[in-house]
C-alpha cells in the first residue's frame, strides 16, 4: 500500500464538517420546518468547535439558512456556504472520503447509487467532483472510483483497520466474493485488514445495515456499539449476535477491544412505521461528540456511555427525531473534513 497515504480516524483533528441544507426540492419537503430546526441545532453545535461547510441549492436557500442560524446566535464567520445541486442531504454517503497523502489530501469519489438504486442520485453522485473544483478546499487530488460505497458503510481506526457489515457491501456487489470486496476496500482506502460483522440491523434503516448505525471505533482499541436488552423486541436476537461477534474481534496486536454497549431506545413509530433510532450514529468533532437524542429516557444513559468512551470530550445532544423520519440520523447527514483541507 502507498506509504504516504492514510485514512484518518474521525477523532483526529478536523477543519470542518460538511452538510447539505434541506429544502423543498428534497424528500424533506413534507416536514421541512421540523428538520430545519434540527439542522439549526446541528450547525450551532458544530460551530462551537469548528467551522461548518454547508451545501445550499441556490442563493435564496443560502440566505434562508444564514438567517435561521443568525437568529439563534450562530457565528456566521464559522459557516461557509457552497452552492451546488443535490438530490438529498445524506452527505455521509455522497460526500468525499478523504485520505491524507504526504502533506496533502486525496478526495476519494466512490460511485454513489443511493443505497443500491433505491432513490435518484444523479446530482448527489457529482458532489465530490464539484467540491474539488469549487476553490473551497486547498489544492488536493481527486480520484473517481467506479465502486459503489458509502461513507456510512465503513469505519476506520486510523491505523489500518477497517470495520464494516457484510450485509451492506454484499448487497451493493452481489457478484463479488468477500475476498474481492475486501481487496478493493483495502487497496482504495489504504487499510491493512478488514473486520466484517455478519449480524446487526435496524428496522426502518434503508442502507442495508450501515456500520455507522451499529458499531463505531472510539479509539484504536475501543468500539462503541448499539445494544438491545429487551428480549421482547424484534431486534434482540440479531443485536445480541452482533454483540457476540464484536466481543470476539481482536485488535491488530491480538488483544480484545474495550467495548461500550449503548442503551436501547424505546420504539419510535411514525404512522405505524418503526424508525431507526440508533445512538451509534454520533458525530465526533474537535473536542466533542455530537449525539443523536430521541426524547427517550435512554438519552441520558447513552450520553454517559459516550462520555466514558470519549474521555475529555464534551457530549452534546441533538434532537434527531425529525431526521429518523427519513431513515437516517446525525452521522448520516454529516461528513468531517480533516484538519488542513479547508482553504
Key phrases:
single chain, 343 residues, alpha/beta, L-arginine/glycine Amidinotransferase, Chain A, globular
Give your account of this protein's structure.
The protein is of the alpha/beta class and 343 residues long. The protein has a single domain (5-338), classed as L-arginine/glycine Amidinotransferase, Chain A. It contains ten helices and 19 strands. It has helices at residues 32-46, 59-71, 91-94, 114-117, 127-132, 166-172, 178-189, 236-248, 299-309, 321-324; strands at residues 5-6, 14-20, 52-56, 79-83, 97-101, 104-111, 141-148, 154-156, 161-165, 193-197, 215-219, 222-226, 258-262, 269-270, 273-274, 283-285, 288-293, 314-319, 335-338. Strands 1-5-6-7 form a four-stranded mixed beta sheet. Strand 3, helix 2 and strand 4 (79-83) form a beta-alpha-beta unit. The mean pLDDT is 95. GO terms for molecular function: agmatine deiminase activity; protein-arginine deiminase activity. Keywords: Hydrolase. Pfam families: PAD_porph. InterPro entries: Peptidyl-Arg-deiminase_porph (IPR007466). One of its GO terms (biological process) is putrescine biosynthetic process.
